[in-house]
Design brief:
This protein is mostly helical. It contains 16 helices and four strands.
Length: 388
């Protein structure tokens, strides 16, 4: 049997785990993630002290917490990246059912922390947002179902995944959390498209999403206010979008310098959803372009490595996870520059948030595991194995 190496690295039998992992993992992606996290800590020193002062904490209370959660998230990322794809699939499916159960019990046991949406479980010392952990394991479950449906005599995976996706979206809309619901629909659509599914199904899903958006606009004052603000020609200077727009405009090319920005004193979510406004004001367009380049590098390297992947599950799951990460970054950046309606969503590895940092670590760990260099069998051998 002829073997074709994925990339330029051929795995040697009997090699120790750590050396084999280091030789086969995408080290450039790891470097980009570490750089994003370092930028997030740097921006946290500027953005979080005003909030800490208002809440009666030490000036760098949130920076310390971000470093702790980020360290945990990076550790999880490395550990997950060392797992075999089949192990990730098994653990991901189990984690999916656990995350769905946690999401379903939110109305009874969750809290809204005064924000009008029941999205968290309070642990006293910290909080957990189940939807953050649901996204990567939902991608694994969907990829497993759709890949299995391509086998002879396989289950109706496409139909099952569609029903599951609609159920999860229903839970998220009830919170309400339209942003996470949109990410779930997008991830499912990408996996469905890559699997070669009929376009009519995707068009039907897009139609349902459009109708759901119209319904939300007509029945939710919160949603209507955000969309009206986005469509308005005038920007209210006393809104978060107004503050962020002024900060980005004032930053210019090179920014005002570390600690010289003022938006952190007026923008409530400067350390989370609008962290890019702090980056633009204090370091200018230069840092913003660097952040965009880092996310683009992670996305493109992952997709290029998956192009040569022969295993359907790995190809579908990896593509879904990469698309999910890229869209979340795009939404965060797009909201800050008013390309999209306002929606609370963190910038992966940069924004403050325990659940987000750890869950993103899980997702990127899966991406690293799926894109590791491994021998690829000839396509004819793979097709023959399905008929055995």
């Amino acid at each position: 049997m002829t073997e074709i190496a994925h990339g330029t690295v051929i795995v040697q039998s009997g090699e120790a785990v750590l050396p084999r992992w280091w030789r086969t993992v995408d080290r450039m992606t790891i470097f980009c993630v570490l750089t994003l996290f370092a930028i997030g800590i740097l921006l946290g020193f500027a953005a979080s002290p005003p909030l800490a002062e208002r809440n009666g904490h030490d000036p760098f209370h949130y920076v310390i917490r971000q470093a702790a959660f980020g360290g945990l998230g990076l550790s999880v990322m490395i550990l997950v990246s060392m797992l075999a794809p089949v192990t990730i699939r098994r653990l991901g499916v189990l984690g999916f059912f656990a995350a769905v159960g946690a999401l379903a019990m939110l109305p009874a046991f969750g809290t809204d922390f005064g924000q009008g949406a029941t999205r968290w479980y309070s642990l006293g010392f910290a909080s957990i947002q189940p939807s953050e952990f649901l996204k990567p394991v939902f991608v694994v479950f969907t990829a497993w179902m759709i890949a299995a449906s391509q086998e002879i005599g396989g289950p109706p995976g496409k139909t099952v995944s569609l029903v599951v996706m609609m159920t999860i979206v229903g839970f998220l809309v009830m919170q309400p959390d339209f942003g996470q619901a949109a990410l779930v629909v997008f991830a499912w659509s990408v996996i469905y498209f890559v699997a070669g599914a009929p376009m009519m199904i995707l068009f039907a899903v897009m139609g349902v999403v459009a109708l759901g958006g119209a319904f939300a606009y007509a029945n939710s004052e919160h949603v209507a206010r955000r969309i009206d603000g986005f469509l308005s020609n005038e920007i209210d200077p006393n809104t978060q979008i107004g503050y962020a727009t002024d900060a980005i405009r004032n930053g210019g090319l090179f920014g005002a310098g570390l600690g010289e920005g003022t938006v952190r004193w007026t923008l409530p979510d400067a350390h989370t959803d609008f962290i890019i406004a702090v980056a633009a004001e204090e370091y200018g367009v230069v840092l913003v372009v660097l952040i965009i380049a880092l996310f683009a590098t992670i996305t493109l390297r992952g997709l290029f490595r998956l192009i040569r992947e022969r295993d359907p599950f790995i190809r579908l799951a990896g593509t879904g996870l990469i698309s999910l990460l890229a869209l979340q970054a795009f939404i965060n950046l797009g909201v800050a520059v008013r390309l999209l309606p306002a929606k609370g969503m963190t910038l992966p590895f940069v924004s403050y948030g325990g659940s987000s940092l750890i869950a993103t670590g899980v997702a990127v760990g899966m991406i690293l595991a799926f894109t590791r260099s491994r021998p690829q069998g000839e396509i004819g051998d793979i097709l023959l194995s399905r008929h055995r």
